[in-house]
Amino acid sequence: MLNSNPDISGFAATITSWQKVHGRQHLPWQGTQDPYRIWLSEIMLQQTQVATVIGYYQRFLARFPDIQTLAHASQDEVMPYWAGLGYYARARNLHRCAQVICQDWGGQFPLNSQDIATLPGIGRSTAAAIAAFSVQERSPIMDGNVKRVFTRYFGIEGITSERATEQVLWRTAEAVLDAAPPGLDMTAYTQGLMDLGSQCCTRSRPGCEVCPLLQHCYARIHARQHELPTPRKKKTSPERQCRMLVARNADHILLEQQVSPGIWGGLWSLPRYDSDEDLQAACCRWGSHDAPAQRMAGMVHVFTHFRLHIEPWYVVNNTLQLAEPAPAQRWVALDELRNTALPAPVRKILEGLFPASFA
Q1: CA–CA distances in Å: residue 26 to residues 29, 31, 33, 201, 297
Q2: Per residue in 124-157, pLDDT tens?
Q3: Same domain, yes or no, for 115 and 169?
Q4: For 299, which DSSP code?
């Protein structure tokens, strides 16, 4: 169902005016037209809160200040600056995209959304946001926050991830821009949609009383704020288990690089074992008769599609010479752990054991 009386002609202008007064103005990636910096922020902000991204964004730019520096770096150099941010395919695509731009675009970031959308890891909405912020291109975006604003204001039913609903949302977004004033400030409008969805039209407890769209909002008028967007049926997350081994030799820890592509592709994890037999064999190989393996407190790490139960074990062998580990494994000094690309749960385990290494 669509709102039978939406104020489509004033929608974009209203959001633009609201953003300039109430929206976010001082984020580190605002106030620039550099598509490299805009692109980096847009990729980092996918599935990640602004407060989390700020520090990562600043550290990443300090190490990779331009697209050429990123393209010429190795993946092993890039991954430590993404470790802990999650969704690691984003980092691999970011690196690959920089290489493609240097190889195929002369090192110059393309400036129209159609060209941008051909690059690795960049979809239609992200491409439109980059073009809007860098060159004021008049193209609609459609992320999770925007979907929430549109479904509530226009009364759009249906699961927003399903193709039919997405098509309605995109057509509506295009119609909004067609009806907007010719001189619309695309930076303020695009940022305003994001800000409104994250600050006012929130998933729970939306601030309808201070929303600039309240007068014509379908969901508010019909008291359906908690029914739109149409909720998906909740699925039970599968439960998985693994054992991880913290093998310490003097001031070194054994780590294993994860295969790409993969959830932790390119990162350095503690060796994982699916069976008690494999774990026992590893404990015998790397442990000491004088210091038997110790089982540590277990932990649960939640991914998008499953929950991973981790059972860590700790062995120490200070008399063992640093034997040649298996392929993709290496001994890492404790004082190097802080700058190593570790998955979040692995970092948490090691921080608990060796807090001084991460200080």
Answers
A1: 8, 8, 14, 21, 42
A2: 999 999 999 999 999 999 999 999 999 999 999 9
A3: yes
A4: E
Task: Measure the CA–CA gap between 41 and 251, rounded to whole angstroms.
Answer: 37
Do residues 40 and 167 share a domain? yes
Structure tokens at 136: 């004021």
Domain tally for the chain? 2
* The pLDDT of residue 291 is above 80: no
Residue 191 falls inside a structural domain: yes
Range of the domain at 310: 239-358
Residues 292 and 144 in one domain: no
The residue written with tokens 């600050």 in the block is 199
**E strand or H helix that includes residue 131:** helix 124-135
pLDDT at 323 over 90: no
Give, as one character, the DSSP assignment of residue 304: S
Residue 122: which CATH number?
1.10.340.30
Q: Tell me if residue 42 is catalytic.
A: yes
Radius of gyration of the chain (CA): 24
- What is the predicted pLDDT for the residue at 212? 96
The position carrying tokens 């990162």 is 267
In a domain, 228, yes or no: no
* Burial tier of 24 (Cβ tally within 10 Å: 0-12, 13-18, 19+): middle
- Give CA–CA dist 51/163, Å, rounded: 31
Question: Is the pLDDT score of 90 beyond 60?
Answer: yes
Q: Which residues touch 124 (CB under 8 Å, ≥6 apart)?
A: 113, 117, 142
Q: Is 98 exposed, middle or buried (0-12, 13-18, 19+ CB in 10 A)?
A: buried
Quickly count: other Cβ atoms within 10 Å of residue 290's Cβ.
Answer: 9
Can you give the CATH number for the domain in which 311 is found?
A: 3.90.79.10
- Which residues face 252 on adjacent strands? 249, 333
Q: Average pLDDT in the 174-200 region?
A: 96
Claim to verify: residue 260 and residue 195 sit in the same structural domain: no
Domain match, 245 and 317 both: yes
258 & 182 share domain: no
| pLDDT confidence tier of residue 274, bands split at 50, 70 and 90 | confident
